[in-house]
Design brief:
This protein is an alpha/beta fold. About 30% of the residues lie in helices and about 25% in strands. The strands form eight sheets. Strands 5-2-1-9-20 form a five-stranded parallel beta sheet, covered by helices on one side. A four-stranded parallel beta sheet has the order 13-12-11-17. α3 packs across α5. The longest helix has 20 residues. The two termini are about 40 Å apart.
Amino acid sequence: MGGRILVVGGGFAGFWAAMAARRVIGDRAAVTLLSREAVLQMRPRLYEARPETLGVELPPLLDAAGVRFVQGEATGLDLAGCTVTLGTGTHLGYDRLVVATGSLMRRPPVPGAEAAFSIDTQAEAVEFDRRLRDIALSCRAPTIAIVGAGFTGIELALELRDRLAEHGGTAVGQRARIVLLDRAEVVGPELGPGPRPQIEAALAKAEVKLRLAVEVTGLAADRVELADGETIVADAVAITTGMVAAPYIAEVPGARDALGRLVVDHALQAPAAPGVFVSGDSAAADTGDGHVALQSCQHALQTGRFAGENAARDLLGQPLLPYTQLRYVTCLDLGRSGAVRTQGWDRALVQAGAEAKTVKQFINRKLIYPPTGASGALLLALSSTDTAEQHL
């Protein structure tokens, strides 16, 4: 029959969308993945040491599955002409489009915010790690400030002593002053009260100094300015202040949520853009029970599979599948204190300590990775919408 399915974005959602589209369409249409980088970044792991290792090369995996790879940045969209414009001025045509351009960190609207370190991308995490190495080799008792006491901020704060020790020795890690700041009155407000006692205990054990209910008015790479006039001088300042949808999704018309995500229908279609499907952190999608998918790896894995399959089904004239993801699990790394695992949207605590750490490490080191060196047949089989929620 011929035809073209184009997936824009090479993160978790985009990769699995391309795999699912290829599995369903077979040889009846070409599947292309367009990504700014040729690496699938392991963003959920970027709080960890050695961030330069936390990526997977995309082209070998895509080649194995028969998916064409184009490296470039999407900058425009012509819905009438069914083309995506690249930064080079070239165009890619499509018959069905999956937008999976992900999210980026929302830097606070204060002076100097651009100068602070971040771990939002692999490149930024590597830059921050270099700074940690320099600090560890030159300071006896360094100070690290982290702005944002949510999921990522907690995980980063609880890794820092070991990361500093790895670069400069145990004494440097022990003497470090780690400050975690947030405007909220509690740590991890989005995580709810269920796991909070374990989180607070882990932070206390790690001697992380909490500064809650504070307003940041200025930032730099080496200081945090507060509304009460206090300035926290630090050897490095990192911000972990939440995410918004990446800008490209604005090219697709339709309603948005507060995070800039496109509100999609039950099949992950853009209601105002026929032939366009949206997945991952760009999509505000009902999980099937009235909850809206989060900007998280577990939701990206599943929405990507559904969006890719539905793009192929739509091209073939087959019925579309309603996206569902009824199981929701949170697993938070607590450094030397293990981890906490919660179940459901009320985040009821089901596991803590070393056992939860084993689960967290399995997720981070195994479950979220596409199997490198796998055959195309295996990759396509793993793109089934039944696989993303297994093992959690």
